[in-house]
């Protein structure tokens, strides 16, 4: 059954952990849009093994294979109470929120944003994942941890903990990437604290969401990601949209 509540226009399906706050970077992007636009919503946390059965039961169709998703059902997904509509997959959810609640606007795409995301995904991203995944496993319930471990270990062909073996070297190797990241992130510094200047855009939420993931999972990884140029500034500038965490 969908969660019906007149006081909430949106139900946000999020990923559960023992911390009981949002920690998924991809859900944080959507949550920050909702918080920034002050849209009333409530959260339903789903244990990872329950995502597919729950969303299927609610009547959502699985992801279109063309979206590149490897799982049939994922969070974030939303239920929009006024239109009785479900939307799944963060790009589709972001577009739906932006078109339904255009004020204040959140720019979803920009050339600079795409360039930054591409740069981060190819450099910092894999190292960040390496540090986070084995630690992420520890904040799930035992049932969710088992699901998470077996899926990730089947995919990677080795125990999660082995990812940590060359963790320090991987972070050191990123040093050479920092000047280019610094220049890109500070392109519009004169106009404001966000990547496009005065107003936050989706790429700010992408970065701040990733940092918040580390904050919830592990302080050491948070410290490391915070030292990537521009990251702490964006995280701090996004704090007003990170107050509602559950
Ligand atoms: N492309 C999806 C990816 C979302 C995603 O990977 N979500 C994870 C949680 S962070 C998930 O729902 N995983 C379900 C599973 O592994 O069974 C999006 O951007 O919404």
UniProtKB/TrEMBL annotation:
InterPro entries reported in the protein's UniProt record: Glutathione_S-Trfase_N, GST_UstS-like_C, Thioredoxin-like_sf
All copies of domain GST N-terminal, residue ranges: 23-99
Name of this chain's protein: Uncharacterized protein
SUPFAM superfamilies the UniProt entry points to: Thioredoxin-like
Gene3D superfamilies for this protein: 1.20.1050.10, Glutaredoxin
Glutathione S-transferase UstS-like C-terminal domain mapped to chain residues: 124-219
Pfam families reported for this sequence: GST_C_7 (PF22041), GST_N_2 (PF13409)
């Amino acid at each position: 059954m969908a969660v019906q509540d007149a006081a909430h226009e949106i139900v946000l399906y999020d990923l559960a952990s023992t911390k009981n706050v949002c920690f998924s970077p991809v859900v944080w992007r959507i949550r920050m849009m909702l918080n920034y636009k002050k849209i009333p919503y409530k959260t339903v946390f789903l244990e990872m093994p329950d995502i597919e059965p729950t969303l299927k039961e609610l009547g959502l169709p699985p992801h279109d294979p063309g979206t590149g998703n490897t799982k049939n059902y994922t969070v974030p997904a939303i239920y929009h109470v006024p239109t009785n509509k479900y939307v799944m997959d963060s790009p589709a959810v972001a577009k739906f929120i932006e078109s339904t609640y255009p004020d204040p606007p959140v720019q979803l795409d920009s050339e600079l944003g795409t360039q930054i995301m591409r740069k981060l995904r190819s450099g910092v991203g894999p190292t960040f994942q390496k540090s986070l995944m084995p630690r992420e496993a520890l904040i799930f319930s035992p049932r969710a941890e088992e699901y998470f471990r077996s899926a990730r270990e089947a995919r990677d062909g080795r125990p999660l903990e082995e990812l940590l073996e060359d963790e320090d070297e991987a972070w050191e190797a990123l040093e050479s990437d920092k000047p280019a990241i610094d220049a890109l992130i500070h392109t519009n510094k004169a106009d404001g604290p966000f990547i496009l200047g005065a107003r936050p855009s989706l790429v700010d939420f992408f970065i701040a969401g990733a940092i918040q993931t580390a904050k919830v999972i592990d302080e050491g990884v948070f410290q490391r990601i915070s030292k990537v140029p521009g990251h702490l500034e964006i995280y701090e500038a996004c704090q007003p949209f990170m107050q509602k965490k559950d």
